[in-house]
Amino acid sequence: MQPRDLSAHTPYVPGRGTEEVARELGMDPEDLTKLSSNENPHGPSPKAIEAIEDAAPTVSVYPKTAHTDLTEALADKWDLESEQVWVSPGADGSIDYLTRAMLEPDDEILEPSPGFSYYSMSARYHHGDAAQYEVSKGDDFEQSADLVLDAYDGERMVYLTTPHNPSGSVIPRDELVELAESVDDHTLIVVDEAYGEFADEPSAIDLLSEYDNIAVMRTFSKAYGLAGLRIGYACVPEAWADAYARVNTPFAASELACRAALAALEDEEHVEKTVESVEWARDYLRTELDVPTWESAGNFVLAEVGDASAVSQAAQREGVIVRDCGSFGLPECIRISCGTEAQTKRAVEVLNQVVSEVPTA
Ligand SMILES: *Cc1c(COP(=O)(O)O)cnc(C)c1O
């Protein structure tokens, strides 16, 4: 007995966790500065924690009203019909739902390279395939309609990541509109706004009232600090919004996740504090690191360090965990998440030291 041919399926490579690294180094996880997964260093909103505690005794029941309430709150926030909000386990869940709704076997998606690996993983799970457009370091990861259209060959889905992971670049709104107007009728533009809260650019969600070929994904994992609960959503055009009922995994967004997300949505102060702290840390990283960095609209900064593997391992020995971007196809770059003030300062101190000692590749 064997599973189907999975040789084209590459496993997802997550940023390394504190427990894992602490065990390996024989250190206390508390002594580690983990800036490898773009998490919220201030944790979740206290209101979300309270909501989780309050809901704990009810988890013997399948989630239903919490899911409905969250969907309605999000529809209200973005001025959409509730059918247009597809709540999912993380934005990764939304990627799966959109893929399920769109791809026939052998259909393709077009995705940025470097980019978020789950787009193509999901396409392959659903018997499709992936092609790439290059968001190139040589052009400072600039994103434009032309760049995508040069590579575009009628793919069924085209992913845009704005702010882009791992570079932090954004696609200007007029470029996005031009793209939506240029692609074939059967192509869906998926705008991944996982880091949307940290950017100055407005969300593309309001374009759904004009375009039936744009979907926008958002998540509670980053600015809202709920990564461990797995909760996100896609906003889709009204014309085909009812597909959700046919593609979603029943009860995949858990009761605790929905309740926490609802509470987090109400705590605007926590998000504002998080965004302010990210703005400070981005500036600090860009000003204080002794290596080239790129302007970022996300809660992370990409830095060119020479041998990213050697630098990230050396930093890790000093208790600072950053993301080696080798798995993104950028073996000379690391991505540093914005931490608290203390974490960010510590990371800069260690990285500058390490970079001065590690020979460049
Ligand atoms: C983190 C991230 C996501 C989604 O994360 P979830 O935790 O599944 O919500 C989606 N896209 C990009 C580019 C990300 O970095």
From TrEMBL:
Modified residues (N6-(pyridoxal phosphate)lysine): 222
InterPro entries named among the record's database cross-references: Aminotrans_II_pyridoxalP_BS, Aminotransferase_I/II_large, HisP_aminotrans, HistidinolP_aminotransfase, PyrdxlP-dep_Trfase, PyrdxlP-dep_Trfase_major, PyrdxlP-dep_Trfase_small
Keywords: Amino-acid biosynthesis, Aminotransferase, Histidine biosynthesis, Pyridoxal phosphate, Transferase
Pfam families: Aminotran_1_2 (PF00155)
GO process annotations (BP): L-histidine biosynthetic process
Gene3D superfamilies the UniProt entry points to: Aspartate Aminotransferase, domain 1 (3.90.1150.10), Type I PLP-dependent aspartate aminotransferase-like (Major domain) (3.40.640.10)
Biochemical pathway: Amino-acid biosynthesis; L-histidine biosynthesis; L-histidine from 5-phospho-alpha-D-ribose 1-diphosphate: step 7/9
EC number(s) given by UniProt: 2.6.1.9
Reaction(s) the record says it catalyses: L-histidinol phosphate + 2-oxoglutarate = 3-(imidazol-4-yl)-2-oxopropyl phosphate + L-glutamate
Cofactor(s) recorded in Swiss-Prot or TrEMBL: pyridoxal 5'-phosphate
Aminotransferase class I/classII large domain: residues covered: 31-351
Family: Belongs to the class-II pyridoxal-phosphate-dependent aminotransferase family. Histidinol-phosphate aminotransferase subfamily.
HAMAP family xref list: HisC_aminotrans_2
This protein's name: Histidinol-phosphate aminotransferase
Source organism: Haloferax mediterranei (strain ATCC 33500 / DSM 1411 / JCM 8866 / NBRC 14739 / NCIMB 2177 / R-4) (Halobacterium mediterranei)
Lineage: Archaea, Methanobacteriati, Methanobacteriota, Stenosarchaea group, Halobacteria
